[in-house]
Amino acid sequence: MTVGKLGDGGGEAEKLSGLNRYACACAIVASMISIIFGYDTGVMSGAMIFIKEDLKIDDTQVEVLAGILNICAFVGSLIAGRTSDYIGRRYTIVLASIIFLLGSVLMGYGPNYAILMTGRCVAGIGVGFALMIAPVYSAEISSATHRGFLSSLPEVCISLGILLGYVSNYFFAKLTLKLGWRMMLGVAAIPSLALAFGILKMPNRRVCNSEQEVETRFQDIKIAAGIDPNCKEDVVKLPRKTRGEGVWKELLLRPSPSVRWILLAAVGIHFFEHATGIEAVILYSPRIFKKAGVTSKKKLLLATVGVGLTKATFIVIATFLLDKVGRRKLLLVSSGGIIVALTGLGFCLTMVEHAKEQLLWALVSSIVATYTYVAFFSVGMAPVTWVYSSEIFPLKLRAQGMGIGVAVNRLMNALVSMTFLSISNAMTIGGSFFMFAGISVLALVFFYFLLPETKGKSLEEIEKLFTRRNSAATKKGIDPAKQSLV
Questions:
Q1: Which string of DSSP letters, residue by residue, matches 305-369?
Q2: What torsion do the CA atoms of 190, 191, 193, 194 make, to the nearest 10 degrees?
């Protein structure tokens, strides 16, 4: 560990400093891997229309194809935590890029369903790595005053990737049936290769703006890592426990009250991010719009591009609000808007389904409700999930704790994407969105009672925040998990 080359939170000095340009550049480059993941997600929504026609697969196979990426991402995220502790954050990003490259090549080749599934599985491992490492790396090089902005960049890149995937669908759809969807999936190999070389070429630079900030942040890191803060050496050997050993015991087997609360908060926010139905909209928006009354493939894909534009626009807005408004307020506003939008979408689709003729007002309202849902999701729940979960874990537990959160995230993503068609067939597509609205109400309650505000606090101060609240509650004889965190 070299002074000035790591930033992991802390102190008043960093709160007074401006945004470090090199830290920003590093976060941007690291977050670019999320563009590839977003592209793989977005492009599949349109590609599935043509894959189903070309390979003659049924709805069950389509659901498996859509969801298998996230099943494999679950495995990748659990492996990625220990890998990043062992080989470092930067080389973990390189490894994820190489995995994405292999997966994209296999999917682009895709002569049959089996090879296509294999490529999707390989890409899924890369997704698990990407989703764990990008927010953690960004959080660790950021100062407290700009961590929300930098840590939300991976989510911005995911949204840009999804938008690029939708646009790719629209243009590659003009090619022949056999070539079009293969180009959609295979073109992601190019940025994967470029990113792997780009990360390796990144030089070592300072991510602090002053010597005072360097010293303050370094002292906080040593305390969090269990190193004597009076140690004057610029290069210190980290304790074994910071390299991944014993972490699972501290996280799962014998967690302290504060770690238990942190883990509950991280798992909960990742669970609700996808339990509220975003993947159903991202992957199956062409089907939703078709149910609403849009018929031609060209118009379906064009309406889907609108989903990508809405998501990207409001994610960018959110990056500038996170460090000003705060994580908690954005999350609560986002949850409230999601409940209203999903209820409206469920109502409109139900009306369309029971009408004997096309209802223009319901068609337009369905599209508006879909865009509104995506907007509220993107301005709060989407970026806050990754920022919040990457900053609340103590240093020694961060990588693998984040890995657990990502694993839950991917499992829920897979569950929604692999069951949405079956659920909508069983309880109607309108009923499925009423279900998501009900889950969103539970999410709002969870966020209100269990997630404290972390805006403007260093990573080390956040750890103390959870400890302080637990300690104060215990002294008063109150269960801290039941406190209202205003």
A1: HHHHHHHHHHHHHHHHHTTTT-HHHHHHHHHHHHHHHHHHHHHHHHHHHH-SS--HHHHHHHHHH
A2: 120
Kindly list the domain boundaries of the chain, sorted by start residue.
12-471
Average pLDDT (120-141) is 83
Look up the pTM and report it.
0.75
Q: Which CATH number is associated with domain 12-471?
A: 1.20.1250.20
Q: 393: which DSSP letter? A: S
**C-alpha–C-alpha distance, residues 172 and 405, integer Å:** 35
C-alpha 274 chain-centroid distance: 10
Could you tell me how many residues make up the chain?
Answer: 486
pLDDT for residue 414 is more than 60: yes
Q: Return the pLDDT at 226.
A: 53
> What is the residue whose two structure tokens read 């928006």?
285
Tell me the per-residue pLDDT of 361-376, one tens digit each, with 9 for 90 and over. 999 999 999 999 999 9
What's the Cα-to-Cα distance from 455 to each of 355, 391, 398, 425, 465, rounded to whole Å? Answer: 48, 10, 18, 43, 12
Beta bridge partners of 223: none
For residue 304, give both structure tokens.
Answer: 């889907």
Q: How far, rounded to the nearest angstrom, does the alpha carbon of residue 42 sit from its chain's CA centroid?
A: 14
Give how far Cα 112 sits from Cα of 41, 54, 169, 432, Å.
20, 10, 20, 32
Residue 336 and residue 373 in contact, taking contact as beta carbons nearer than 8 Å: no
